[in-house]
């Protein structure tokens, strides 16, 4: 792993979003992820790439996949990893985000991986601290490592983005995963479309080069990749659709609906899935579905990101 050549990458000490990455940088990450995935799956040993470095996860929202895979990735590269449980930290005594960040910097954290309900929280820390900040999902804004692992999972299966039709389904409005997918996939040359209830599709989404559908059955025709998004009931202060029953009827990916897409269509979901709401159990467990592969790829993606950010510090 030490022999990977990288001529200066992410033009920043931080990874805040995929909006700021160039196509060439995304391609370089995809190539690196391949190497890190082989290393992760095959090697019983650790790499010393992050030996002597400390990574702290600071999650203001719950997580299973992102937090654990950052921890696994960092440990595989020999970093020390510490996790802050926000609801038992001094945040509950009223400590501000910036003061919390400064405290972790004073403890010589090399990387802070932050998830926050406020869009832009990682950017605030990145501007304030010398520590590398990695956005693990902020509000409705971006979830860049999820975007990268989705990109890699598609590339691993389809080998190209050229003329590839990718459909994002459901709650686009509240989804930071959708935003990171759109930034990355459009830069790589894929044809991106979204489908969902009009109340869950942002009015300006077409400006990002995305086609908009409201009829799921029509949108599925000729689609190569379907990325189903979780209905984020916890972010919805008002009713965006009449009832869950109605949503299921119009937008759940069922076995019957899946037949309208290509036979080799890739079915993805960032997780956690709401079985029986946005996706049927039958489809979630079908051979078209790569949800668990996405999770494994997430570790390799985070290894590649940590490697690249660390390289900029050397
Ligand atoms: N996809 C994703 O971000 O999952 P977690 O919330 O479990 O991290």
What this model shows, in words?
Helix 2 (65-76) crosses helix 11, helix 5 packs across helix 6 and helix 5 (144-158) packs across helix 11 (291-313). This protein is globular. The protein is of the alpha/beta class and 314 residues long. The chain folds into two domains: 18-142 and 295-313, Aspartate/ornithine carbamoyltransferase (Rossmann fold, 3-Layer(aba) Sandwich); 144-291, Rossmann fold. It has helices spanning 23-42, 65-76, 97-106, 121-128, 144-158, 176-187, 216-220, 244-251, 255-258, 281-284, 291-313, and strands at residues 54-59, 80-85, 111-116, 132-138, 165-169, 191-195, 211-213, 225-228, 266-268. Bound molecules: phosphoric acid mono(formamide)ester. Phosphoric acid mono(formamide)ester (CP) binds next to helix 2. Phosphoric acid mono(formamide)ester binds next to helix 2.
